[in-house]
Design a protein that fits this description.
single chain; mainly alpha; Ferritin; elongated; disordered N terminus
Length: 174
């Protein structure tokens, strides 16, 4: 199983529910906060795994960037929800993200060397594409609080840069 499949299902469920005669998933701000935090924490964990396994300097630099940037955005999110008195709310999307992440972590744990590096970077590309699509297509438009919407927009710009960085790194690894 790869990120593409389970996360694509999650993202598709968030935006395409109407295609099945159901309203598209319209998360509340507490649910959005939980989804965004979970997505960031997943990438922090993936970066930490890469730092523990990879010996490639480019991959390690990228992984360190993921840990640093996603930790910083999550810290900003925690500060915001505390200030607003919002309690992030677990939901099927954040649960599905966590489940898919555990599966991918286990898959990557079985790889070493260049095989790990390539799989990690390909996963980062797919993961950022999916999360960026969810941010721009569902989470940002659904956010009701202006400060939350602004933080998500800032995160989206940063994460789009991460996707581009991962795509360039993938070309260098092949």
């Amino acid at each position: 199983m790869t990120w593409n499949f389970p996360i694509a299902i999650v993202a598709a469920g968030m935006v395409a529910g109407a295609a099945y005669g159901q309203p598209a998933f319209q998360p509340t701000d507490p649910q959005i906060a939980h989804i965004a935090y979970t997505a960031g924490q997943i990438d922090v964990s993936a970066g930490q795994q890469a730092l523990a396994k990879s010996k490639n300097a480019m991959v390690r630099d990228f992984a360190q960037e993921m840990v640093r940037d996603h930790t910083a955005v999550n810290d900003q999110a925690l500060t915001l929800v505390e200030r607003l008195g919002v309690t992030p709310e677990a939901n099927p999307t954040s649960t599905a993200l966590s489940s898919a992440a555990a599966t991918k972590h286990a898959e990557l744990a079985k790889l070493n060397g260049a095989a790990f590096d390539r799989a990690y970077v390909q996963n980062e590309i797919a993961y950022h594409k999916t999360v960026n699509a969810a941010l721009s297509g569902t989470l940002i438009p659904s956010a009701r609080n202006a400060e939350l919407k602004e933080l998500l927009g800032t995160g989206l710009k940063l994460f789009q840069a991460h996707q581009t960085h991962a795509e360039h790194l993938a070309q260098q690894l092949h």
